[in-house]
C-alpha cells in the first residue's frame, strides 16, 4: 500500500501543472512537506521492523502517528487553499488529489506500524 500510494502521488504530481506560478509554487511546497514527513515515517517504520524491544516499538509507532497527524494538518491546509484559490476545476481537482494522495502515504505508514505492533503483541501475549 505504501509503495502504491507513493507511486500514485508521483503520477499525480506529473499529470498536471497549475498555470499560476504562485499557486504552483505554494502547492509544490506543501507536497514537499508531506513528502518529507512520509520519508521520516518510512525511516521510523524501518527502525520499527528492526527493533526487538516492544516498548521501543511503541515509541516508534507514536512517532509515526505524530508524523501522520502533521500530514493531516498540511492536507487540511492544502484542501482549504484549493477551495479558496483554485481558478479552474482542473487546478482544484489536482490540488485535492495531491492532498489526499500525500495523506494516503502517511496513513499507510501508520497502518503498517499498527499491524506490526498488533502482530507482535499477539505473539508475546
Would you give an account of this structure?
- The longest helix has 36 residues, at 89-124.
- Helices cover 90% and strands 0% of the residues.
- The chain has helices at 2-15, 21-50, 54-85, 89-124.
- With 125 residues, it is mostly helical.
- The model has no long low-confidence stretch (mean pLDDT 94).
- Helix 2 (21-50) packs antiparallel against helix 3 (54-85).
- The two termini are 28 Å apart.
* Ends distance: 28 Å
Helical residues, percent:
over 70%
Indicate the radius of gyration in whole angstroms: 17 Å
Helical segment count:
4
What is the count of β-strands?
A: 0
Low-confidence stretches: none
What about the largest sheet?
none
Principal-axis shape equals elongated
What fraction strand? under 5%
What is the average per-residue confidence, as pLDDT, rounded to a whole number? 94
- Helix/strand-derived category reads mainly alpha
Order of helices and strands: HHHH
Name a few traits of the molecule.
125 residues, mainly alpha
Provide a compact summary of the structure.
90% of the residues lie in helices and 0% in strands. By secondary structure, it is mainly alpha-helical.
List the helices and strands and how they pair.
Elements: H1 2-15, H2 21-50, H3 54-85, H4 89-124
